[in-house]
Amino acid sequence: MKDGFIKVAACTPEIQVADVDFNVDKIISQLEKCREEGVKVAVFPELCVTGYTCQDLFFQNALLDKAMEGVVKIAKTTADSDMLVAVGVPVRANGKLYNCAAVMQDGEVRAFVPKTHLPNYNEFYEARHFAPYRGECAAIDLREYGQLEFIPPMEQTVFVCEEIPELVVGFELCEDLWVADPVSNYLAKAGATLICNLSASDEVIGKDFYRRQLVSNQSARLVAGYIYCSAGDGESTQDMVFSGHNIIAENGSILAESKLFENGITISEIDFKKLAFERRKISTYPASAEWDYSSKDSGFLDMENISRERFSLEMGETALTRKFAKTPFIPSNQAERNERCHLILQMQSHGLMKRIAHTHSKTVVIGISGGLDSTLALLVCVMAMDLLKRPHTDIVAVTMPCFGTTKRTRSNAEILCEALGVTFREVDISKAVLQHFEDIGHDYNDHSVVFENGQARERTKVLMNIANQVSGMVVGTGDLSELALGWATYNGDHMSMYGVNASIPKTLVRHIVQYYGDTCTSDTLRDVLYDILDTPVSPELLPTDESGTEMTQKTEDLVGPYELHDFFLYYGIRWGFEPSKVKRLAKYAFEGDYPDEVIDKWLKTFYRRFFSQQFKRSCLPDGAKIGSVTLSPRGDWRMPSDAVAKLWLEDIDK
């Protein structure tokens, strides 16, 4: 359970209707496989001990007695395992029959959790056989079936893990999720971070899509893990078919899903520390602290109570099987990626459109370098002018070559501006920078930070003054990744009147420009965008070679690969993971791409720079939030500029 990961499983065994011995053997067989895989929570389908489709056989005492005997047999097989297991079974109590989840661990049935909402429409007739749960409780005596030490209750129960306080398990059954006010709503309010659903959902056209969306949305709404386990082949096909559609979700994301009509075990790992972080962060999430944990019962809205039971898990490292994208800001699906790029361009351009209209700017002024960031910002300016129905000539794009500008980037800047029809200006800043060096007594051959920042600040001064000339506003080009690393010159490229890329990570900038090139109608524009994409990322602040064609400065050689830094930013800042956990996930995701020592090196660089450069983020220009991660001091990220990184750096090495 290191780093908060718990391995869970949704199990659909082969069954035979009303053949309890057969069903129990198949359940136990799958439990053995779960134990081998290190599963800690295993969920089986609704009424799987008997079969969901027994119909009026549920009135037969012979079947009900055998079911209890089977449940105790399954429970005894858990004696040598700490796995929490839930199987579906009919239970007699209070003179009625209930559709229940039998929850077991350490060789005993710990509780029977009854179903609240019984479907009695279309193909479902559960109310013919079962009673809905309305808060009543009962003690289920299993001594005649072989369980002697503990008499389990039948009541709504959540299970609280002693060793992992973030893990609280609640149970609902099938229709309990499909109703307007699901039982899991109340379980989550009671603190449940994992909802287990024992289901027997039959298959009809389109239902798999709806079911998937239902589970995903509920896990997102509750900020919870969700295991949905459904009946499969073996149930009666007299009037229905069952596909065994199993789904494991975490806060809206589907982690694992079974193929339809293939009985088996679906396994993944849910990150409960991640869920706890998100719940703490969301101020509107109800506090489960209002519950009295020392008391067994607490009020439960329209139910009489929810019982709280404690259980233990043996601590250890959970082997990971779930996927962690190397580029978490970028969808892996091409169609989804294109759709996201289109939406981002719309958001950026509409944000800029509003700012232009509000300030009554006659122009927008942008520094154009021939690099990716300024290219994206220029494309956004063009789209904003189109929205305002204004000519592209109202965009003043300024290229400012100096000592490090290559012929390639200079040429691409001009071709790009001509293809877009914007006003193009060139201001060679070499003389001005040399004069400045002379004024402050700086040797040209000293290529220190003074040499680099002197150029960056001169460029910003030029842009600001040109903006005054043409009654315009300066549009910033810096991206989110640069802001995280502080890879910007304070009061240089750090400053503008509106930063359109401030919420776009570097890895995503590339895909947006690629999308624009793929979808534009101009061959000239497409070709120059593709060449810009092929150009190494560089601030071009150190002198080129003698031919003026080769860069001597490449950003990723200096601060590290942006795909690593964006990975660190997403998991370390967005989700608040400890650096040691970020390191573990990075080594898992980038296995074979980077040696461990390289990941360690750049992770330390990330945290050192992230902390030391906060002062630059504390006074950022305006810029619209685009994704779930932003470092605006007015929006998502507030941090003291003099915070110390020691704790985070020590955690990397521990």
Jot down its keywords.
654 residues
Explained architecture:
This protein has 654 residues and is of the alpha/beta class. Helices cover 38% and strands 18% of the residues. The chain contains 20 helices and 21 strands. It has an 8-stranded mixed sheet with strand order 13-12-11-10-9-8-16-15. Strand 1, helix 1 and strand 2 form a beta-alpha-beta unit. Helix 7 crosses helix 8 and helix 10 crosses helix 11. The chain is elongated.
Overall mean confidence score, pLDDT: 94
Structural class: alpha/beta
Overall shape: elongated
Q: Radius of gyration in whole Å, from Cα?
A: 31 Å
- Per DSSP E runs of 2 or more residues, the count of β-strands stands at 21
**Which regions have little confidence, pLDDT < 50, spanning 5+ residues?**
289-304
Number of alpha- plus pi-helical segments: 20
Side-by-side strand order of the widest sheet? 13-12-11-10-9-8-16-15
Helix content range: 25-40%
The proportion of residues in beta strands is 15-25%
Assembly context of the chains: single chain
Largest sheet: 8 strands, mixed
Distance, first to last CA: 17 Å
What is the compact description of this entry?
The chain has 654 residues and is α/β, with parallel strands linked by helices.
